[in-house]
Amino acid sequence: MEQKKVWIPFLVIIMLLGLGMFFFPFLQKQLQREKEEAPPFEAEEITTPNSQTWEEEMAKTYDYYKEENQDRYLAYREKHSELSDENILTYVNIGLDQPYYTNTKEAPNQNTPYVLVNKYYYLGSNYVPDNLEELDTNYSKGGISLVKEAKEAFIQLVDAAKQDGYTIRAISAYRSYEYQEGLYQRYVNQDGIELADTYSARPGFSDHQTGLAVDVDNRELDFNSFEQTKEFTWMQEHAVEYGFILRYPKDKTDITGYTYESWHYRYVGVDLAQKIKASNLTFDEYYMRYLDKN
Asked: Domain coordinates of the chain in residue numbers?
């Protein structure tokens, strides 16, 4: 009995192998026939919506996108991936992708409160603003002029500050091309070009030549210390009510190109001054986004 139990499983295995060898060629021929009769495989065509390039998206989204600056936008974006799209367009439009005082243009909107003068936009050597008027010594240290509209606004500002118990005085305003030429050269002789360029404008590129800029003090401390005065705090809150903005803010030196100047204010008109302050942009940035029509 024990011997039969061993042989029965063995015989079953032999039979299964025999059947497999008999049917395998048949199955192989059947598979080959089905393969030959099947239609050729064609990959399904995949379609995707039309993609939009970055520059096409920018042109569609922002009014201040300039097609002529397209290559510069792309190059600046590659170098500054940390910047927002808005800032990439704005900074290139200002000219910040290029060294200061290169590819300069004559300032548009001359003899208006929103003329922009910086290290890329200049006024000619013969430019003298219209309607310059001198401030009397109740409002200045003497011999100082502003464009009439700015002068009248500054007088109102000083009078309002006085009513609140504060003293503000103009120590510098309009500067001619020739005056700025001599001033800048003195600073270059004193500190060298590289350092002088951080705090003094080259002739033709000075905000003061517009006749709309004014430097102030409180008749007690040197203007360099104006930030430490109560008058500075008052100006921060009330200057825009009379159309003046802080032209070179502390945290925007890489945009304005100048060191922080707590004493330098620029007349742009009440409406525009309030919009610029609310935007937290410099005049340069705001101009390129909302005022530049070129």
From this structure: 55-98, 102-291
Cross-strand bridge partners of residue 203: none
Please write the tens of the pLDDT for every residue from 32-58. 665 555 555 444 444 444 568 999 999
The secondary element (H helix, E strand) that includes residue 22 is helix 2-37
Cα atoms found within 13 Å of the Cα of residue 294, Cβ hemisphere only? 12
> pLDDT digit string (tens) for 182-204?
999 999 999 999 999 999 999 99
Query: Of 261, 251, 140, whose CA–CA distance to 198 is shortest?
Result: 261
Non-local (6+) Cβ contacts of 215 within 8 A are: 170, 171, 172, 173, 223, 261, 263, 264, 265
Predicted TM-score (pTM) of this structure = 0.81
Please choose, from the candidates 134, 66, 61, 137, the residue with its C-alpha nearest in 3D space to the C-alpha of residue 95: 66
In this prediction, residue 293 carries a pLDDT of 80
**β 121-122/144-147 pair status:** unpaired
Contact 106, 123 (CB under 8 A): yes
Domain 102-291 bears CATH identifier 3.10.290.10? no
For residues 258 and 270, is the Cβ–Cβ distance under 8 A? no
Q: Which residue has the tokens 């003293």?
A: 167
Which residue matches tokens 């500190």?
A: 191
Helix or strand holding residue 145 (H, E)? strand 144-147
In order of 6, 92, 171, 250, the CA distances from 263 in angstroms are: 110, 28, 10, 11
Measured in residues, the chain has a length of 294
